[in-house]
Amino acid sequence: MRVLICGGAGFIGTSLARRMWQAGFDVHVADNEINLHQLPPSIFERITKQRREILRPATFHKVDLCDRDQTRRLLESLSPRIIIHAANLSIASIAEQDEDQAKRGIYDVTLGVLNELQVARPDRFVYLSSSMVYGHFTSRSVHEETPLKPINRYGFWKSACENKVIEICGKQRIPYTIVRPIAVYGPLDGNGRVISRLFLAGQSGAEFPLRNESSVLNLTYVDDVVEGVFLATTRPEGNNQIFNIASEDGPTLRELIAFVKKRYFPDLKISSSPSTRYEPHRTRLDIRKAGSLIGYKPAMSLLAGLDSYYEWHKSTFS
Fold first, then answer.
1. Cβ distance 87 to 161 under 8 Å?
2. 190 in helix, strand or coil?
3. What is the mean pLDDT of residues 121-129?
4. Which residues, in sequence order, are CB contacts of 298 under 8 Å at separation 6+?
5. β-bridge mates for residue 2, sequence order
6. Is the distance from CB of 150 to CB of 134 less than 8 angstroms?
7. pLDDT digits (tens, 9 = 90+) for 221-231
8. Of 118, 188, 207, 274, which has the maximum CB count within 10 A?
9. Which stretches of the chain are assigned E, i.e. beta strand?
10. In 280-304, which positions are buried (b, 16+ CB within 10 angstroms) versus exposed (e)?
11. Closest among 143, 104, 111, 116 to 127, alpha carbons compared
């Protein structure tokens, strides 16, 4: 069965492509491989090369998915049975700094694919959203029926995309699945998420700004996220459903820093910094729905996951 992963050369997309072809799917990847996160060119090229090596069994299509003609031609030529859309700007701070880039990199690119779905009429459309759609977590755990109250541009546009997925797929009677991961980390991540920034500070000697230190980090290893997306995509119980995908527990930011300092970077420098308005306070995502409907259960321990990321980070950023 043919699957198209939009944004399949990104951090999550690359590992997801590997999981899909290992399961026997005919995997096609659409990506334009732009350095959206302003990594140093040498580091970006190194990570891109690593991702491309993993993607060798897949068929790669260099496409600007904001270009409607390119998107239509791609879908017409492939007629994929499954479309997984992971082609979104992935960092909230960049979205907050550049409103036009936030809209184009999240909403416009998603709408561009949705508007051409009638060309391929897939059996399933899967959208990788974000826990940012919830805004501040106001209870001990947040489930899928919790009202969405995004507090930043990133969460706002992700929420708008979810609404469009439900609307357009509903009109065209195409089954959809929406996945809301949180705090993803692991090898191949150079996107400036909290773990990446923390390890970069430890390696370079720069100060790491400590904000919102009591916020809980449901740090979720990339392979666990990928398995959640895979199950949500391939199980019939995933049709027309929304799933939180996360680890079962996690440390506060202060606890994480103490652990990283003790185990990896004893000279790690920390500076206190006020919270920004675009950073929500978080507790935990409730993943019981994913567990009961599609059999999702995260497998990677925090220690093993951080050790894996540390080894990759050391070899890639040295």
1. no
2. coil
3. 98
4. 220, 221, 224, 227, 228, 246, 247, 248, 287
5. 26
6. yes
7. 999 999 999 99
8. 188
9. 2-6, 26-31, 59-62, 82-85, 124-128, 141-142, 176-181, 184-185, 207-210, 220-221, 241-245, 269-272, 284-285
10. bebbbbbbebbeebbebebebebee
11. 111
- Do 33 and 112 contact (CB within 8 A), yes or no? no
3-state DSSP assignment of residue 236: helix
Find the length of the chain.
Answer: 318
Residue 37, Cα to own-chain centre: how many angstroms?
14
DSSP-derived letter for residue 130 is -
pTM above 0.90, yes or no: yes
* Mean pLDDT of the chain, nearest integer: 93
221: β partners: 185
Q: Which residues of 227-255 are buried (b: 16+ CB within 10 A; e: fewer)?
A: bbbbbbbbeeebeebbbbbbbeebbebee
Query: In angstroms, what CA-CA distances link 102 with 30, 121, 160, 166, 278?
Result: 20, 28, 12, 21, 13
pLDDT digits (tens, 9 = 90+) for 150-171: 999 999 999 999 999 999 999 9
